[in-house]
TrEMBL record:
Name this polypeptide is given: Sulfotransferase
Keywords, in A-Z order: TPR repeat, Transferase
Placement of TPR repeats on the sequence: 174-207, 276-309
Entry-linked PROSITE patterns: TPR
Keyword Membrane: no
Domain of life: Bacteria
Organism name: Sphingomonas oligophenolica
Cited PANTHER family: PROTEIN-TYROSINE SULFOTRANSFERASE, PROTEIN-TYROSINE SULFOTRANSFERASE 2
Amino acid sequence: MITKLSPAQAFERAVQLLDTQPAGALSQAEAILTQVRGFPPAEFLACQALRRLDKPKAALPRLAALARSQPRALAVIWELAQAASEAGDAGQAIAALESLTRQQPNVATGWFLLARELRKAGRVQDAWRADLSGVHASSRDPELLAAAVAMNENRLDDSEAILKARLGRLPDDPATCRLLGEIIWRRGDMTEALALVERAVDLAPGYDLARDFLIRLLLQSNRLSEALEHAEILTGSPLNNPGHDGLMASVLVRLGDQDRAREIYERLLAQQPEQPQIWQNLGHVLKTLGRQADAIHAYRQAVTHQPTMGEAWWSLANLKTVKLGADDIAAMQAALESLEQGEATSQEDVFHLHFSLGKALEDAKDYPASFRHYELGNRLRRPMVLHDAEGFSAEVAAATNVFTSAFLAGMGEGGCRAPDPIFIVGLPRSGSTLVEQILASHSQVEGTMELAEMMIIASRLQSRVDEGEFPDFGAMANALTPADRLRLGEEYIERTRVHRHTDKPLFIDKMPNNWQHVGLIRLILPNAKIIDARRHPMACCFSGWKQHFARGQAFSYDLVDIGRYYRDYVTHMAAFDRAAPGAVHRVIYEQMVADTPGEVRRLLDHVGVPFEDACLEFWRTRRAVRTASSEQVRQPIFTDAVEHWRMFAPWLGQLEATLGDLVPHYPDMA
């Protein structure tokens, strides 16, 4: 005996079939409608089944009729919006979603789908606003709030678990992708973090916070062209956020387009002049462009608006040709006292002020007080940076042992034959900016900046050892085929192309730390020129120790650390000289000062370009210079810095002991 199902039972059975057997659900729903004509739940179920059967056009008129009869039935409106979207009827989808978001403004999914439909219809600004409304709605989501709280409390495992479970249910949720991307970034996995944040931006192109974060990740990854593309998009946001313009300026600075960055900062200050951070940023750009008087004005505006702004004071002091006077010293001491008495002291402001006072008191010839402030600044800064002197020495020794003459000969021909790059290596404060400015004054040589590309390539190769693919660096280097070396060399040339703004055949990479990678350079760019800029070990190390660097150079905040670093550098370069005689041209700073014409001719001969008088008048060359010596190279060579370190000799015993026999044997260290 066959039991006939009641309409209620049939409906319950159809609901059970919807997800797994939509055809069966549709059949049951249609059967119910023959018994109970116009029954809304059955009609809605039939439309759901049609959409799951990829028949949105068939479902659309029935859903529209249901929505007209039940204008507050949100599930019907949502189904109508999705069916219209799948059927390609953007107008009907938009109308449904606008109704839905009016009634449920705190449901982010509706806003994000509305944004996609508006974008399809060419209504870009309206779509952007819808995405922003979706982000605002997401900020009230209890699950996302719980994940954010866990992240901010550094409970990364808890936060990640919440977000991954949510992403399993909602794979297309932009806010979940962005927040999970931040968790992964905090864990140190840049590749996965970038993928997640890029997905958030793909899903919701108007998600400004995600695009802002993506730009910062791209900058950290040195993917500058992509960062610029996203920054240009972000500046079109309907929110008109000045922070977007500031981020664009930061990207332009990294790309070396100082003039465009200057225009942005000046425009922002014209709108709101009392912004110390923008004044400081403008000062950096003006300094790089060689507009010293304007840079000084900008930095002084910054400290006028915020007297405790240590970085702005240091930026003033760091203009090596500027001397801070008694009034400035008093103002900095007052700022330091104010910071040290405050409850929420900014350690960065404090150590910047110590470095600044060290420079001001050095100029005032109060060397004991100057050294005391330099020491305090370094003592505060050292715990903030990671530098394992023992581990670093071991890494350098390993590289030294790999790149022997036998190894280089055994590797044979290979690499990219492009002659374009000129690498200037050594320690900071060694005269490398002077060498760069001399070369960049030549008609065939373009000066760029300190480029990170070679270090990125070297780090990627080292990661293959760290991840266990090779037992050590030597095995990895030995495994590089001619094709691998060609590819890596071409990658370097391609990645640095964004920094080249002229058609000059040669360009300079002035990243000093590339001395660690001279062997790799030889393997992948055999025709590249390498210049080693060297300065007396006491003068160079002391100058580096009293210099606060904007980034990198973690070895420079302790006199013993910097002395060890200098020893590692000299040892490695001497070994490479033996392995590849003549591959490196050494410029001794003191010899360049004593015989500039002769040293310049020898330098140009090594690079392979004819002598030009402009190289002797390098200070007349107008170009952006982004190092601590930017102002010094805009004037003729002066000699008073050669022996200046001796004024501080009574306090440099640790450094001298660490350097050992390098001091009396300079410059014949090899």
